[in-house]
Design brief:
Elements (H helix, E strand, L loop, with lengths): L6 H31 L2 E10 L5 E12 L3 E3 L5 H7 L2 H16 L7 E5 L2 H5 L3 H12 L6 E5 L1 H5 L4 H13 L3 E7 L16 E4 L1 H4 L6 H16 L3 E4 L5 H9 L4 E2 L8 E2 H9 L7
Parallel strand pairs: 2-4, 4-5, 5-6, 6-7, 7-8, 8-9
Antiparallel strand pairs: 1-2, 1-9, 1-10, 2-3
The chain binds ligand C2E and magnesium ion (3 copies).
């Protein structure tokens, strides 16, 4: 460790740590302001049926248009927003904007919204979802909430989380497990959960064209998901070979640059109302 390597090392180590902490504090302050200043935008990426290319829905992805840094990707600020609790406010903005956009699309096109664990655990989340849907005039079955395995497997509040998921599910909202396969990967717990679909993480999709054993693994995961009556959306499909192999693995839905990159709300509306919904 740094300590055993002499005094100079320790100082440099502390200096970088200091810079990192400062940078996080600055980002935190800027994030707080960004919500007030309206610096966030949503982009929408089509989720398509792999065989026909028909668009079934869009995933809403947040972008921060920082006045001096340019577009900040979510991985650079979602974690900070989670830690500081700002995710609750930001998440409400994302949810409300996403359902408002979806209300413009022809049914049954759905919108999928990422929900971080802290946001889900915040008091009143179920009520917020219901109010957001009512305010936008969107049917509950046109909303998919993407949660992560960690929410289901954390040791706190399990009964409350379970009953809130049940309430959302009964109201018609669908639940997806995001980044599926990267977490605990225990399929047994999914059996008793009100979950409708899983999103197979891009890291799996990336390996199927080069590794037969990874492809077998992916086929196994998809097969197991189907046994549990879960639909599968594969993430990060970039090539025609990926698409063909996933169809061969009985995967129904997919998302990725092969079909479309995330796009502005106006473009998503054009995409889904014009022949765009049939394009691949
Ligand atoms: P995610 O939910 O797994 O979203 C998929 C990510 O993969 C998106 O990155 C998307 O742009 C990217 N992607 C899609 N297709 C391809 C492809 O073919 N190739 C490659 N290389 N990438 C592809 P993005 O938008 O940077 O989002 C990253 C993560 O940030 C998301 O992962 C999600 O966990 C989080 N995130 C984004 N928006 C929100 C939000 O509104 N709320 C919360 N809580 N998290 C969000
Ligand atoms: Mg997602
Ligand atoms: Mg994902
Ligand atoms: Mg991912």
């Amino acid at each position: 460790m740094a300590k055993t390597s002499g005094k100079g090392r320790v100082c440099r180590y502390e200096a970088t740590l200091h810079t990192r902490i400062l940078e996080r504090l600055q980002l935190h302050a800027a994030l707080d302001q960004a919500i007030t200043n309206g610096e966030f935008r949503l982009v929408f990426q089509p989720v398509v049926a792999l065989d026909t290319g028909r668009t079934c829905g869009f995933e809403a992805l947040v972008r921060w248009l920082h006045p001096s840094r340019g577009t900040v990707p979510p991985l650079d600020f979602i974690g900070i927003a989670e830690e500081s609790g700002l995710i609750v406010q930001l998440g409400e903005w994302v949810l409300r904007s996403a359902v408002a956009a979806a209300a413009q699309w022809p049914g049954p096109t759905y919108v999928a919204v990422n929900v971080s664990p802290r946001q889900f655990r915040a008091p009143g989340f179920v009520g917020l979802v219901q109010r957001a849907l009512a305010d936008a005039g969107l049917a509950a079955d046109r909303l998919v909430l993407e949660i992560t395995e960690s929410l289901l497997l954390g040791d706190r509040d399990q009964d409350r989380i379970r009953s809130e998921l049940d309430a959302l599910h009964r109201s018609g909202v669908r639940i997806a497990i995001d980044d599926f396969g990267t977490g605990y990967s225990s399929l047994s717990y999914l059996h008793q959960m009100p979950v409708d679909l899983v999103k197979l993480d891009k890291s799996f999709v990336d390996t199927i064209t080069t590794s037969p054993s990874q492809y077998d693994l992916v086929k196994g995961i998809i097969g197991l998901a189907h046994t549990l009556r879960l639909a599968v959306v594969a993430e990060g499909i970039e090539t025609e070979d990926d698409r063909k192999l996933l169809i061969g693995a009985a995967c129904e839905f997919g998302q990725g640059f092969l079909f479309a990159r995330p796009m502005a709300a106006a473009d998503a509306l054009t995409w889904v109302t014009a022949a765009g919904s049939l394009r691949r």
